[in-house]
Amino acid sequence: MKELELLKQEVENCKRCNLYKTRTNIVFGDGNPEAKLMLVGEAPGYYEDKKGLPFVGSAGKLLDTLLGEIGLSRNKVYIANVLKCRPPNNRDPKIDEIERCSPYLFAQISYISPKIIITLGNHSTRLLTEIDIGITKVHGRVFKKGEKIVMPTFHPAACLYHPEWLKLLREDLSKIPSLLSECNL
Ligand code: URA
Which of 23, 26, 53, 55 to mutate to test the pocket of ligand 1 (most atoms within 8 A of CB)? Predict the structure, then answer.
């Protein structure tokens, strides 16, 4: 899609925050720009920064497995992050970084126009639901945002170390097929 390609070029030249100084590559997004389902993570990690693609490390492998369990794969969804550049040592995104970078995510959402957005973890959940409740309380709830549905769930990276959250992540994601078929009505 031309608009997304132009936006990607803009992000490649972005210096809105200091993260451009330490990035190897921007991580714009990956998947199907026509997808009805979009997943939004937090920020690139080490491997994502090296490859320029989202969720290619161990959290990404887990995400691929979980998507596979509900009959989905990367070419059927679109995956992006709140931040397009890796924070050094994978620290949490800063408020000003989110403020400067999130217009890119909002533009991606408007070009892709997904029906359902799954927010992975606290940062994307706060940004896209505009409510400030921790993920352990809010996960699995379905929010209507205009024409779209936003459903927060756990970040797969956190679930690598918390098997009890992995169970909940899997349960939340299992709602996706019926949400998608409702959207097709
Ligand atoms: N964690 C994220 O939030 N995004 C990635 O792309 C990789 C790990």
Answer: 55
Is residue 157 within 6 Å of ligand 1 at its C-beta? Answer: yes
Q: For ligand 1, is residue 48 a contact (CB within 6 Å)?
A: yes
What distance in angstroms lies between residue 185's CA and the mean position of ligand 1's atoms?
A: 32
Using CA atoms, how far residue 102 sits from 30, 75, 97, 126, in Å, is 17, 24, 8, 12
**Distance (Å, rounded) from C-alpha 165 to C-alpha 156?**
9
What pLDDT score was predicted for residue 185? 55
Fold (topology level) of 2-182: Uracil-DNA Glycosylase, subunit E (3.40.470)
Instruction: Tell me the pTM.
Output: 0.96
Give residue-wise pLDDT tens across range 84-100.
999 999 999 999 999 99
